[in-house]
Input
Amino acid sequence: MKFLTWYVGVFLVLILLAGFVTDSLGKIQTLQQAISIAQSAARAGTNAATGSSVNGDAFDLSSQMAVTAAQNYLASAGVFGTASVAGDTVTVTVEMTYQPHMLGPIELPLIPVEATGSARLIGN
Output
């Protein structure tokens, strides 16, 4: 009977450890997803360049069109973020949250995740 308390304690510690590992990996997966979305949105922004390399024109990056294209990509991905243009580089920051699954019953708050991606227009 004296070992029953010890076994229950070890069992609870192992469950908490498994929950911590599982939710940590979930947060990392959410971060990777946010990075991928941010980089893709930045590339979508650079696709808003105008010009033609066929006839020798230089590409121009319209700040307004690039931000709109990046925001449209973020909206289609269902995430919140901001986009900005500096010179020939589009930078996108994505904000997401991760809901803990294993440790959710102990009322852990949502875990915020933020990622930034950028793309530069090449060919000028």
About this structure: Residues 38 and 117 are 5 Å apart (CA to CA).
